[in-house]
Amino acid sequence: MADLFDSYDPAGFFDEMFAASGQPRPHYRRLSERFVRMSGVSELLDRQTLADQTFLRRGVTFTVYSDDRGTEKIFPFDLIPRIIPPAEWQHLERGLKQRMLALNAFLADIYGPQRILKEKLVPSELVHTSKHFRPEMVGTPVPRKLYVHINGVDLIRDPQGVYRVLEDNLRTPSGVSYVLENRQVMKRVFPNLIRDYGVRPVETYPSDLLATLLHLAPDGVADPTVVLLTPGVYNSAYFEHSFLARQMGIEIVEGSDLVVENDRVYMRRVHGLSPVHVIYRRIDDDFLDPTVFRRDSLLGVPGLVGAFRKGNVALCNPIGTGVADDKAMYPYVPSMIRFYLSEEPILPNVETFLSSEAKDRGYILEHLPHLVVKSVNEAGGYGMLVGPHSTKEQIEEFRRKIVAQPRNFIAQPTIGLSRCPSLCDGQISPRHVDLRPYVLNGETVRIVPGGLTRVALRKGSLVVNSSQGGGSKDTWVLAESAATEAAQTQPAVTEQLLV
Amino acid sequence: MLTHPSSSSAPQTSPTVLSRVANLIYWTARYLERAENTARIVDVNAQLVLDLHGQLADNPALWEPLVYVSGGEELYRQHHARSSSERSVIEFMLFDRRNPSSVISCICTARENARCIRDQLASELWEELNTFYLALKDDDFAKYSRTGASEYLGVIKTRIQQFCGVAEAMVPRNAMWWFFELGRFLERADNTSRILDVKYFMLLPKANAVGSALDMIQWASVLRSCSGLEAFRKSRRGQLNLERVVDYLLRDPVFPRSIVFSVREAGRALAAIDADAPNHPGKPAAALLSRLETSLAKGEISDIIIEGLHEHLDDIQLRIAEVHEAVQNAYIRYPTA
Q1: Per CATH, domain A353-413 is 3.30.420.10
Q2: How confident is the model over A35-52, as pLDDT tens digits?
Q3: Which residues of B are less than 8 Å from A238 in CB distance?
Q4: Pick from A226, A259, A269: CB nearest B14
Q5: Residue B151 contacts by C-beta under 8 Å, 6 or more apart in sequence?
């Protein structure tokens, strides 16, 4: 049987599709059978072309402004889905909810009684030196006591197949529009496969998000108005901003559209001002209000922070949330879970060393060629050293930086992320993947099944960020009923808790 | 799924549109209309040149009037100070990104504007404009000559009209739509006055050639550039001549590209915008428009021509610009406390 996976070698890492060479895992069998019926890789390539054209036509692009025309690129999309069986997803869901509740409790504590600092479970020093800690928010109430509304959690699977949290993204993480668009495209490209598999829908995300936002509206407003505040059309995530606004049926606004009068926020409409009650902001704290934070910010709204403090407008996320996704705070999340919830963490962290701690720093400096070093304030794969893939010069450069500014760096062992078959250079090859589910925290915690599976399309690369040659895949969480056969043969997931 | 806050779970929002959004849709309409008219002017000139013979056909002065009427003379001179030719004019009018009124710039800006408000547009509308731009963005003079002027420009006109057709069929008749209409018809009134003015700059071999065969051909071209030749014939105005053509394009009450028709439609759009807000100070713009409409009907065409058609058309353009300013002040840039 000559098939597309004949030369596929799953060895060396955890493979999402194959238990061993030629042996697809139960939940991938149907897909494997479907692919065998294809007329070779050319049929797959045709479908890939169809998918790429669809993205371009729909304008699902980000713009590279290296020339005056603005070259538009699509976020590379890989046709072969990442499939998650029901039991695995239930396990993830429980772990993600638990983490969300603990992080919110932590922020409420930090901007309130600061018990966890008094108990010395988290060093005060670490909080006070965090770039995103806002001392002026201590004692300021926030709507419904919610400090974090959306967490885009980066999950990875280690060589044993154990899901681990790599980082939290609490400040309006991006990428969810691709989750929805990828599914739209897959429905065109593999309509029958999606139906046969019983893939759980993701289309409820916009209405879940809107419900989360409406929940924050000030009391006594009968018909609250929610808007999305964008830095503007030149922001690389603008497509997502306008996509979400359209899906939720809310206005997308820029700073210049908003006006604050008497500590109330209004938007400029053609016939005058009309009130705004909830702002889903996709700009950082620093740029929110030039009268409070950065004076040179043209993106923000003068007086916005005052209106927020008076409780006349809700912000998602509120000001100062970033202290909890500071990468140096991450190692303490398991302690937070134990302290606030009296539970054991369901999803383990990745072992992490803080270069601000003297003993960790020594270890880091001795083992740089084997570690991944991350700058605590950067995202998108920037400011990062992947030791095993770096030159001596790059390693020495990081050594100097770490010694000079220990608070700015953390290090983690290089983890061989799980791999998933991907279509690269005309053939199917294993590529490393991660998974970013989007966890919403409103009246309840809601998680749309799956999330964004990012894939490092460069051979051997462990960096999945789009700025570093990453792409994405559709993520299929299977419905309980449709996947009973798969679930029965699936090993019990509880063993993951032992790690 | 069409436009504007309408999702069933969404909160009811105030019915009017954001000032910035209104401005973007207004400009989208203006740029599309401008691109279409530019294509029309170039098309007609290309046809006209075919009717000329000998040396005259190669004379750059046959092409330069297009630059004058588009108002881009200064910019054109900066880049083509030395030599001017059919090619340099066509490149400037169609493909030059340094010229903000070239077809490619207009379509690019219209698309960028639409991108800024794509949350408010029907997906079909955005995709229409996006695919149009993607198809157009790498075109150049070589492609233009290979395809042939009339074929190439025909496609551009059709794509823009296709967009307007989709818009017509899909956009709810709220303020968004009326700002689109306002932009479209203000731009059209302005552009038609410029097309009429093209004849002012056109070469006639001799001063006494007025009424000659060539003169007739040129007037027919002016009408054709507004898709007005057949309509003119049907209007039973008799033989083509200067006065009749000017009267038709200035004052015909039913021809959709005449100036008076466009001004009236713009006024209708303005009234619709203010329909729900009777106390809103959009009135200065409306007053300016209605004064323009009245003045268009005044005077004998023959007198206007004697006093100077070019100056008369200039005055119309100036008054349209005043309406534009009044619209900006009333709806877009109004002061707040």
Answers
A1: no
A2: 888 878 888 899 899 888
A3: 115
A4: A269
A5: none
